[in-house]
Amino acid sequence: MIKDEAQKLGFLFCGISKAEFLEDEAPRLEKWLNNNYNGEMAYMNNHFDKRLDPRLLVDDAKSVISIALNYYTDEKQKDKEAPKISKYAYGKDYHFVIKDKLKALHQFIEENIGSVSGRAFVDSAPVLDKAWAKKGGFGWIGKNSNLINNKTGSFFFLGELIVDLELEYDNPFNADHCGTCTRCIDACPTEAIISPYVVNGSKCISYLTIELKEEIPLSFKDKMDGWMFGCDVCQDVCPWNRFSVIHQEEAFNPHPDLLEMNKKDWEGITEEVFGKIFKKSAVKRTKLTGLKRNISFIKIDKNI
Questions:
Q1: 14 assigned to a ligand binding site
Q2: Which of 53, 100, 123, 265 is catalytic?
Q3: Cβ(67)–Cβ(161) under 8 Å?
Q4: Residues of the chain above pLDDT 90, percent
Q5: Which amino acid positions bind cob(II)alamin, per UniProt (predicted)?
């Protein structure tokens, strides 16, 4: 019943896991943090125990209801010389879209089952989304560290509804269909994928253009591949994404002016234009100052 409702709400997948300690992830997360692969994302060092055990986030948690929401589009920016923006940020900020849907799912559960305590999570708390999605049967974690499904690729968001309700649990996805492929590793402009399944977050273009608040280090000169917000390279080259289907979520459609802006438009972007195009967008996270910093670095990057 819950999965049927999730589908009606537009979710691509819905899987359910028992809320328990993520034993396999604990040493991997600890090693990743000890290597400082989180860069200046200091918050990743916080709440280590909570990241690994949902019962510390929601009192008496019994189940993790994982969802995925497709955001793939074949629409592209018209000017090939323009600074690039990741597909996920074309439309409305996914945090709001998914949280609204998860709240609706929670309400549906209460209306049909009775009082159920729970919380919706979309990047808003220490939850290991990919680990729960894998446990929920969505797919495997690829060499680029993204969750991949062998029927729809990897262009989807993840979220959870953690509840104090016992449910029937799905089997985890234990296969790995990356095989000997290394396209994502070979294509990464900054060589952030330092080995299969391990990403040095502090070298990732998404980190450099969004999370990093200081100036982008000059060591990344000529390596940014024209990206001003996020990066899609490791997904664009992944063979499994040939199965991606165009999303049906109206909220993710780009502002009419976004794809039309040319290189000069971006270089001269004003507060007014930024506010209009990115009114409810995830791009607001980097603010106009951050976007301008990224665009300026790309100009240096290309020796213009």
A1: no
A2: 123
A3: yes
A4: 96
A5: 51, 123, 144, 147, 158, 206, 231-232
